[in-house]
Amino acid sequence: MSLHRRHGAFRASGLALLLGLAALCPGRGALAYLAPLPHVSVGRIVRLRRVPSQYVEPRNVDVWLPPGYPKQAPYAVLYMFDGQMLFDAHLTWNHESWHAARTAARLIASGKTRPFIIVGIWSTPLRMSEYYPQRPWESLTGAQRRRLFAERFWHQPILQVAPFSDQFLKFMTQELRPAIDRRFAVDAKRDATFVMGSSMGGLLAWYAMAQYPRVFGGAACLSTHWPGVSLSMKPQPHNPSSAAFIRFIREHFPSPAHHRIYFDRGTRTLDALYGPAQRRVDRLLRSKGWTGRHFESRVFPGAEHSEKSWAARLAIPMTFLLAPRARTGHRNAAGGRGGSE
Fold this sequence. Notes:
Elements lengths: L2 H5 L4 H8 L24 E8 L7 E7 L10 E6 L18 H11 L5 E6 L5 H5 L2 H5 L3 H8 L2 E2 L2 E2 L7 H19 L9 E6 L1 H12 L6 E5 L18 H12 L7 E7 L8 H13 L7 E6 L6 H7 L1 H8 L19
Parallel strand pairs: 3-4, 3-7, 7-8, 8-9, 9-10
Antiparallel strand pairs: 1-2, 2-4, 5-6
Helix pairs in contact: 9-10
């Protein structure tokens, strides 16, 4: 059943963030580099403007530093995608944000997480191609790829070029991460380095950990868009993306011994599509030994596909990934697995 027939009109914010269409993609074009610095009520933002790369187009990176930095060094690092949507709703195209600085500062001050910084990597108009996991894409047949290229929204192609997330991850791990390690007072070890994203960014978060298991000790994937570029969850062979993602996880996911992964979803708007695929992923990971403090999968009834919903629950994945080392053997501060499947 198609998205529009099944769910009616969706919030524009969820669709635009998902699609990354050129007309709606935040931070579009050269003027994005001149965007004002986000205002945060606690801590401060350092902007790395138009970070160059030999792998992808340059982009802004906003680094949030908590109050008192660098007194609690070394800091853990949380890399987050769609960086222009994280901190200041007054500057985002849809007037919503994750309010990530406020939540992070509260968790650090209360001792529920270790001290950490946030590295917000801006997305570009080619977001869909940068975030779609590349190796699963390359496992598809030519006919399946052509079918996905044919997907349209508002008469525009959803996927403008073939996915190149491997290039994006090279930028992230080989260029950006060393620059962050040199400039800021951080702990560069795997157990202090994490990644988080939502929607297509949720796909990229687990893919980043799978591709670079020696770099990232954990990933948080909010409202993971298992349909890939599609706006429906039609049975095979119409939508091969979710099967390709699950097959890759089955064959290439790292051992849970040194990693943690968090998934969640709501039940409204685009999130209403994700249950079947997410349950398959949950069963697969548990069969591979992902249990206890290494794995969390939650459902938030009534939550939709938007920054507002992600902001409301952001403390949960942050605490899951960044709980103080002395407490990582216990259930995280969110409490239990209520709502998990």
